[in-house]
Amino acid sequence: MATYFIQLGTRSGLPATVTGNLLSLSALLAVAVRLGAGALTDRAPHRNAALITTMMLTGGLGLVLIAIGTPVTFVFGSALAFSAGWGWTGLLLATTLRLVARKAENAGHTVQIGIYTGATVAPYAFAGLAGAYGFTGAALIAATAAFAGAAAMTAGALLARRIE
């Protein structure tokens, strides 16, 4: 999201200066969301998976709004995608370690490899998708990936609870 934020914003009809300022505000919002989500999960750790799923779904919704391509939908979509859509990664690691406590070292390793590989590959993949399908298509594909991630998180959490 951050890599293509300015391009997505200007293609939605916002001036580059406004889009740059929105990027800064979205980053501050992301910090606030991460702190708030962390506080929520500290109080109710058994609901971490539900919060992560909600954050993934919110990020996916934000990407759908960005794909619509108007200035208003970009502003709202970028706030959702940038803050909630990215704020779940640390919570995912903590939740995984809690859900798979007997194999925490393997689970933590697997989650971190996935997160860092995704962070490395995603900008290149988005560029390839944008080249092939345009920014709208790439944003919709990314939204679909977020929705699939939310479904996988839900299924994994349910499976882990059954195994316990």
Q: What would you say this structure looks like, in words?
A:
The longest helix has 60 residues, at 104-163. With 164 residues, the chain is mostly helical. The chain has six helices and no strands. The protein is globular, with a radius of gyration of 16 Å. The model has no long low-confidence stretch (mean pLDDT 90). The relative contact order is 0.14.
Task: Give the SSE layout.
Layout: H1 5-11, H2 16-43, H3 48-68, H4 71-84, H5 89-99, H6 104-163
Helix pairs in contact: 1-2, 2-4, 3-4, 3-6, 5-6
Describe this structure in a few short sentences:
By secondary structure, this protein is mainly alpha-helical. Helix 2 packs parallel to helix 4 and helix 3 packs antiparallel against helix 4.
What are its keywords?
164 residues; mainly alpha; 6 helices
